[in-house]
Amino acid sequence: MTTFQVLLSIVSGTIVGFVLGLLGGGGSILAVPLLLYVVGMKDPHVVIGTTASAVAINAYANLIPHARAGHVQWKAAIVFAVPGALSAYTGSIIGKLVPGKQLLFLFAILMIVMGVKMAMPKKKKSQSEDLKNQVKLPQLIIMAILVGLLSGFFGIGGGFLIVPGLIFAARMPMIAAIGSSLVSVGTFGLTTAVSYSISGLVNWWVMLAFVGGGVGGGMVGAWLAARLSKQQRTLHYIFSGVVMLVAIYMLIINAEALDL
């Protein structure tokens, strides 16, 4: 790694940390193309292992300001994280055996569908109805297992799926889902990182540079998320817009890989 590549790793980490702090997800989806096309790493599997490690640490670091601000619903967050981590490890084992680009093409389509859904207006419910249906435990666990499997398989933190999963199954407001999702983003990333590090597929120097940049970017992102908490519709639009932009980029890149 050259000095310039280390600097690029820090800048890339800052971007990833900012996105994690602001949106509670998207970090590793952005980190993978950043390391491949900006930093210049060559092996996609090493990129996945390295980003999983960095995103896990950044997610836990960004969790602190959200927790202090009261944006984390711990019970639902832990219930989601534990079964999801077990399935993430299983997914990571499978992911190391399968070329990822073809499957990321399909995953990008899923991201677009999810982004459109997140941008759609939600029907308002009465406060009593919200309290009555606050947490749907079976749906929460099933969602965690599915998201964990996908997160481990694709080598991502899974925040893009965790946030809407928490909103759907735990009836969280957007800002609480963002804060709570970081528990699972960190746990899923750590589980995937352990699997990849056992196989020697983690570049620790790039990971440290990424984390260094991510801490600062995460603080700014968390601050902005708190400022926008009173404008939840704005956060929904930002979230869905970033999802779809990244998804379009992934579709283009992976369509070329598939010779479509």
From TrEMBL:
Record family assignment: Belongs to the 4-toluene sulfonate uptake permease (TSUP) (TC 2.A.102) family.
Subcellular location(s) of the protein: Cell membrane; Membrane
InterPro entries named among the record's database cross-references: TM_pro_TauE-like (IPR002781), TSUP/Inactive_protease-like (IPR051598)
Record field: transmembrane: 6-39, 46-66, 72-91, 103-120, 140-163, 175-198, 204-225, 237-255
Main localization of the protein described in the UniProt heading: membrane
Membrane topology of the entry: Multi-pass membrane protein
Protein name per the record: Probable membrane transporter protein
Pfam families xrefs: TauE
Keywords assigned by UniProt, alphabetized: Cell membrane, Membrane, Transmembrane, Transmembrane helix
Keyword GTP-binding: no
